Structures are given as structure tokens and as C-alpha cells.
Amino acid sequence: MYVSKKVKITGAIIAILVLVNAYLLLRENDIILKKYYINDAHFAVTKDHEKILSTDAIVTSSNEQFIAAPVQAVDEVLVTEGQTVDVLGELVLFKLEETEKEIARLESDLAAYETELEELKSVVSQLEIVSTETDSTSAIDSNTTRVEDILNLTLSIELGIEQGTPTVEGIAIIQRAIAETERQMELLSSRITQLSENNMLTSPVDGIVKEIVLEGDSIIFNIQSTDKKLVTYVTPKQWQEVEIDQMAKITLFKGQDNELTIDGSVIEKQQIPALESIVFQEMKKHEKINVNETVYEVSIQLSEDISDTPIGTLANADISVNEEPHSLGVDNEWLVQIENEDDDKAQYIYMLDGNGNTLLQPVEKYFVYKSRLNQHEALTMDSKGSEELEETEQPTTPRIQTVNLKAESKPKVVKEELIDVAVISGPDELYPIFLDGTTRNLSAPTFLPYPLQSFELSHIESDWRLILKYWLK
């Protein structure tokens, strides 16, 4: 059959238009708004997110006391290694003629503590003035708070206060040092009183005589307090996250009949790498430390007495290193970075607006932690998944259009796995639906190839007759 040249040209033009139209519709980043098939989405709910540092810990004494006495002053040693002693319990009987010398030495120590106490109180007063002049989030910095006039070098090193430490935290550290100094002064005063009355050197704490050592012209008593604490070891990266006063949950005898969970708080983190202490050796023995990695010691004070728990007992410590109330959790890989953005830290995420259209929402990322987050389960309105929904928080209508296809078109249920969950600021939407990081045109409509909820007979209420009457009309 003969086809005219005019028809051929017309057909070619139509074919070109069809191909161009198909390309514009189907290409990844087309300029024509098409409906996007939502392959992966997360139905998010605002809640309080917490980042937990889980680590192994070990029970040890809260502190060790070293008490020295000059050998020539000692008339009799009254304790042996391994013996339990009470606070102000007798350790040494002094010679009468040497008692006054020992009292003079103790009084000299007491005077030094008094000087230190005055200095600490002065530092706190000046830091409190600085804190009121600025805001509560200000940091100790030589340029803004004249820290060189407030803290001398020796004091700042001993207390572990670094430049950049928040002022409020610095005040708390110094106040703890004040309390400890006042406690030592009380003990010294009691020892001086007892020594002057009965020529006795006494223990400053309830504890156990761990060791008695003759060193040079002195006899030294190493007394391990009966008060217990937990010690754990963290990596340099974890060290940056751990702060004084962070809360912790301690589990002793996990999985046993006498399992015990106790609250605690971080009281100290060492500034120098961990040394080969007894606790360090115990952790190595149980293979809880990587000997090829630098670690730092962190101490946790317990809210309950565990004096019946022996030193060296292993425990689990969960330290709350970060917390963000009223925030949202989403797969960290879903966050997108816009090219040529001035702020390198700016974060965005694709989500749906109230009409089910795509938009790119700017968010603030607070922190990232490992957790389970099943996006497929989150798609169903009646499934709580890992983001727990309260019954009163269920949305009334979905924002994603759905169509009925064959059952095999539904995505496969993915087994929950630990992923990096980014904790982000929440948009104004009450029930935000986040999308993965696939590039999409903004304001484009979306759909799912299956309903959000499957039909169940329980959906039919007692007025089924009205439904049947409606159908028969």
C-alpha cells in the first residue's frame, strides 16, 4: 500500500513527540510532575530519644587511702594486711616523745587544706559571677572569662578542667573538690584530737588494710575503702561523649537469679590513658579490653550500697551519653546534602506534605545511634513498629494514595537489623512520613501499589444492615 510523503512526515513527528514525552515522564529527574511510587517510607512519631553507651564494668573500691607514719615515731603496729578497720580505727601506737611531731605534721597538712579550700571557694565565686554575666551555656575560655586569673595551672590540671569546659560543669567539678577537701579536713581534725589524747594513728575511712609497706624512713598503710564504685574503660571517641553527672544503669549478675539493676552517675573520667592497675588487669583477664587500643578510665558512683558484692565482680553499664526530647528517628542514610550549600552541616530529608506530595524538609541532626527501625512495618497504620504509637495518636486518613494490585506486588517484609538511626528535629507535621534519599521532584504526588490497611471482617460494625441497604439501592 502506498503511503504518501505527507503521512510519513506526520507519523515521524508524532513518534518523536511520543518519545520526547515518554523521556520527560520516565527519566529520573523529569520536569513534569508525575506520581512517584513510594518504595520505602517511614511513618515517624515524636518521642524522647536517648543514646546509650553500653560497656563492661567492674566493681572496685571507691578510693584508696595512703597513710604514712615515720618509723622512728612508731611504738607498735596494731593491724595486719587484709584486716578490716573502721573509720578512726587504730593503726599505729606512737611513742610518747614522737606524738607532738606527728601532731605538728598533721596540723601542717590541715593548714594546707584550709588554704586549698579558700582558693577553691574563691574560684567558684568568680566563676558564678562569670556565669551570671553570660548565659548558662557559656564555656570556660581564656578570652571570655579571664580563666588565667581564675584558675591557676596546677589547680586546673588536678581538677581536670580544660579550656572550653562549660562554666556550669566547671563549677560542679570544683564544688565536688570543695566537699572532698572539707571531708579530709574533718578527718585530720579527728586524727589530731585522737593522737593528742591516746597517741594513736587512725584510719580515715571504713576499709580493708590492703598493704603495709616499709619505704625509706616511713611505714605506709594502703587502706581500700569498703564503699564501692564501678570502673569501665572507654575509647578516645567514647571519651568525648562521656561527661560528669551523666546517668547510668548498672546490671550486676546479669541473667542470674540474683540479677540486680542499680542507678548510677559518672563521677570521674581520667584525662590520661589507663594504667596497669588491678582493675585494668582484671578487665584484661576477662578479655574486656583491647590491649592494642588506647582506653581511658571512667568511674561510676552507685545510688545503692553494694558492700556485699566482692571487688572484681563484672557488671554491665549503660551510660546515657546523649538525650533529645521530642525528636524523631530516621535512617541516617535517608538524610540528603544539597550541593553548593553554604552550610556543610545542613541536613534535609524528603517527606510528604498534607496532600501526599513530596517536599524537601530542612532538619537538624542531633546525634546518631545504633537501633532497629523497620520502615515497612512503619507503613501500616495499625503497626507500632519501633516507633511506638499511642492509640490516641493514630492519624485518621493516610496521605499516600493507594491502588489494589496483586499480592505479590507488595514489598517483602525485611527482617529488622541494627542500623544508624539519625535523631533529628521534627517538622511541624503531626505525623510526618519520611521518604528515602532518592532524588525526587518537589510537590510531585505519590502513591503506594497496595493499601495501607488490609480489609478485615471486624471493620463491619453492628449496623451491617444499613451497608447492605446502601448497596441494594
From TrEMBL:
Keywords: Coiled coil, Membrane, Transmembrane, Transmembrane helix
Record carries keyword Coiled coil: yes
Keyword Coiled coil: yes
Coiled-coil residues: 96-130, 171-198
TM annotation in the entry: 7-26
Name of the protein this chain belongs to: HlyD family secretion protein
The species this protein was found in: Solibacillus palustris
